[in-house]
User: Fold this.
Amino acid sequence: MPQRTILLALLLLSLPTTALAADADGDGWDEAEDCNDANPAIYPGADETCDAVDNDCDGVVGTAHGDADTFINCQDCDDSDPLVNPNAVEVCDGIDNDCQAQTDELVDLDGDGFNLCEGDCSDSANPVNATEFEGPTDLDGDGQSFCDGDCDDQDIVVNGLDEDGDGETSCETDCDDSDAAQNTRDDDGDDFSSCEGDCDDNDTAARPFNDEVCDDGIDNDCSGVADDLDIDGDEATSPLCGGDDCDDADPTINPEAGEEGFTCLDEIDNDCDAVVDDLDEDCWAAPEVDAGPDKQQKYLGGTAILVLDASGTDDANPSDELQYTWTLDTPADAYAGVTVELDGDPLSPYAFLRFHAEPDTAETEWLFEAHVVVTDPHFETEADDSGASVVLRVFRPTYYSTVDCSVVDGSRRGAPLALLLLVAIGWRRRR
Assistant:
C-alpha cells in the first residue's frame, strides 16, 4: 500500500466520532439526536403540531394523549400532568399551570400592587375596605400588615398584636392594648370587666354602680375616689363619709350650688356655708342700672314734662329694696329764657323733668343730660356705669308761633283781650 494512503487512513481514524456525525437537514441536530434528519422542522425541542408525527423527538406524536386531561400532546404544555393544560387555573406553585408560557402570573384583582402569588392574602375584586388597606404591606407602621392579622391597617393603635401581653389584642376585644390591666375578662366575677369600668377587677367590692361604703378605703362605685358617698348624685360627698354636702338628699343643695337670685328668698342654705339667704354674701350683688332710652319731646309752649324711666334696672336679689337718685348733669341755667326742674321719689325708678321756655328764646332745640344712681342695702352704682345716663331733647317745630297764648305757669298776656271780649258779648245780650 502506498505510504500516502496509509497516512490518510491513520488521520481519519484519529478524528472524534462526533465529527463524523452528519446533519443532513441543517436544523442544527445531527442524525444521532435528530429523529428525522431529513426534515428540518423535526428536532428535539421543536413545537409539537397536531399531526401523527413526533415533531419534538420526544417519542410521542402530536395527536397522542399522555395524561388524564382532555388535551392531546400538541395542545398540552405538559401531557404527563393532568393538572397542567390550557384550561387549568394558575396557582402559586412555580409551574405554568395554564400553559401561558408564564409561571404564577396571577392578576392583581384589588389593585394594591400584589397578587395572591406575591403575598396578597385578600386579593379580591370586592375588598372589605379600600383596596390598598388589604395586602401584605404594613401601611400604618405598627409592625403588622392586613395579611399578618391587622384588622385596621390605617390605625397604628389597632392591630392583631398583643402589645401588653394580657391575652387579648386590640383587633379582638382589648380596649387598651398598652395596659395589661385593661381587658374584657371579669377576673373577680362581679359581672364587670376592666374594659367596662371595673376599677379593681380583683375585688368584688369595687365595681360600677355599686354603693359607696364609708371608711373602707375602697372606691366601691369606681368613681375615682374612695369613701365619696354621694346619695343625691350632685358630686358632693355626703357628711356620712366626712363630706361637705349639707343635704345629700337634694342635688340642688351642695357647696357648688351658689346662693343667688330667688334662692336668696327660700330660707335654705343652698351653698352649705351655714348662712341663709340675705345674710349670705353670695346674695349681695350690685344692681345693673338701666336709665332707659333717650327721650325727646316737641315743645309748643307752656310747660313740657319728660318722664325718665329706670324701671329696667335689674337686681340679682329680689328681696333688695332699691333707691333711685336722679341727677340733672346739664346746669339749669345753661340756656337763657329756659326753666328746668327735675323731680323724683327715691323709692320710684321714675323722675320728671319740667321744661319751660320763653316764646322769644333764640334757641329752638335744647339738650339735657341726666343720670341715675341705684342703691340697695349693700351696693351703690356709679354715675358713669354703663346704662346710667340718658339724653333729653326738647325742640320747637318750624311752625311754632312766638305769640304765647298760654295761661300756664302764671302767663297772663292773653287775659286783657279775653276780658274785653267777654264784656262785649255781655253788652250785646243786654240790648
